[in-house]
Amino acid sequence: MSATAPTTPVMRRVWLIYLLVGTAVLGAFLFVPGMRVGPLFNAIAFSAPLAILIALRWHRPDERLPWILVAAGQTLFVVGDVITYNYERFFGTEPPFPSIGDALYLSVYPFVIAGVLRLVRRRAPGRDRASLIDSLIVGIGVGTISWVFLIAPYVRDPTLTLVQKFVAMGYPIMDLALFTVAVRLVVGAGQRPTAFHLFMAAVAALFVTDGLYGWIVLHGGYDNTTGFLEGGWGLFYLLLGASALHPSMARLGERTEEQEPTHPRRRLVVLAAAALLAPAINIVQTVRGETTVPFVSGVIFVLVLIRLNRLMVDVSEYRRTERALREAEAKYRSLVEGLPAVVYIADFGEDGAWRYISPQIESILGFSPEEFMAGAKVWRERIVPSDRDLALRAELQVLRGEGRLQCEYRIRAKDGRLVWIREEGDAVNDDSGKALYLQGVMYDITELKVAEEQLVRALEAEKEASARARALNEMQHSFLQAVSHDLRTPLTSILGNALTLQREDIQIPPEQARELMASVATNARKLQRLVTDLLDLDRITRGVIEPNRVDVDVTRVILNVLEESAGDDHPVRLAHHGAVMGHVDIAQVERIVENLVVNAIRYTPVGTPVWVSARREGDRVLLTVEDAGPGVPPELRERIFEPFRQGSEVVQHSPGVGIGLSLVARFAELHGGRAWVEDRPGGGASFKVLLPDGGAPEPDPGLNGYAGAAVEAAAPAGPPAGGT
Question: pLDDT of 507-531, one tens digit each?
Answer without folding.
Answer: 888 888 888 888 888 778 777 766 7
